[in-house]
């Protein structure tokens, strides 16, 4: 029976002949309950395919259970500390623990073997026919910042589990094992550290060290919080979480775009070629302050004006980079003492600057620092702090993963667009230990991190299908 012939013709007759011929082959998996469920679902017999099974055959047999997936997204959103439609799910809280249990249960129901590491990254593995080969992984996060929506991250976790179900129902058998990962705390809500789980997986010694003394706003230590959720049991050293470079042959994350491009252009799939990474900077200026009436203009050293001038300098340096991909924001600007009749004696700025080109972004940071020093000198104020809080390198998607995602979209007749992720994701850190790629699906008006966040069942199902076929391809490569 030639699968290639089948693929080339797509004729109904051959499809019929194909079904007849495989149903004539004696099955070796009669007693397998997964197969029985698959058979119930698809309405025709499914048998273990041979390992030479061609991934190009798959598109016609991939069916997403969009209704069940939507029900799961709705159900997961009820594990929230704020009322619907908002979702608030903060690391290691009771609701987070319950939501994790919900996911582990689903991983088990899909026949995956589940393990958790010391910070609660959760892994569900489907062993391939050659389990000694490095696995292909997919996943995202389920934590949600206060009063946010139910799709950010969740689509990449529940969607990944459904992608595995899709492949199982189709009769696909992976060569490389497939693994679903739930990353701990992508959002910085509780401990101020974003992508905590994936950053640690990627081997961040600095983070493993910092977490020994990190506390939240209630002064609860990270380790105590982790223990209350059942993690970090008998060790303070979290280096057990580190994965070696090359632990996976590929990693793919499915995510809502969190931007308006796909929806506006009417495209179902975005294929991410690069993830921009932010650097954050804290700046403090100090002047003498004084009475707003009594101190004459030539005698002032106004810390507030220094901050204002620096904010404009940030904009100038970003625009001067010459690339539309360079962005900079002064999101916090505080003046002390903050009275109408008092010259600001202190000012505090927090600056976020991002790019997909690390050198270009770091060049902007350097110029901002030079401006801060020049402004302080000219205005007679003290630059009491210029601190780069973090400076993560951007990541490029891997060519082989991009090609697999593009081929999958094409075979499924779903138009795609190559694009840049301007928000950053766990994929940014997975790129340090594995070839990486990301799939975007449209979301309503690009809304995210608010209750109005929405992605249609159809768009989610398309994303899951492309993910499933991409995983199949990568698993056989
Ligand atoms: Zn996210």
TrEMBL record:
Annotated Gene3D superfamilies: 3.30.70.360, Zn peptidases
Pathway given in the UniProt record: Nitrogen metabolism; (S)-allantoin degradation; glyoxylate from (S)-ureidoglycolate: step 1/1
Alphabetically ordered keywords of this record: Endoplasmic reticulum, Hydrolase, Manganese, Metal-binding, Purine metabolism, Signal
Any one GO BP annotation for this protein: allantoin catabolic process
Segment forming the signal sequence: 1-24
UniProt-listed CDD domains: M20_bAS
Any Pfam family the entry gives: Peptidase_M20
Catalysis performed (reactions): (S)-ureidoglycolate + H2O + 2 H(+) = glyoxylate + 2 NH4(+) + CO2
Co-factor requirement: Co(2+); Ni(2+); Mn(2+)
One cellular-component annotation, GO: endoplasmic reticulum
Entry keyword annotation includes RNA-binding: no
UniProt cross-references to SUPFAM superfamilies, sorted A to Z: Bacterial exopeptidase dimerisation domain (SSF55031), Zn-dependent exopeptidases (SSF53187)
Gene Ontology molecular function terms on file: hydrolase activity, acting on carbon-nitrogen (but not peptide) bonds, in linear amidines; metal ion binding; ureidoglycolate hydrolase activity
EC number in record: 3.5.1.116
Subcellular location: Endoplasmic reticulum
Primary residence: endoplasmic reticulum
Protein family (similarity comment): Belongs to the peptidase M20 family.
Subunit text: Homodimer.
Name used for this protein in its record: Ureidoglycolate hydrolase
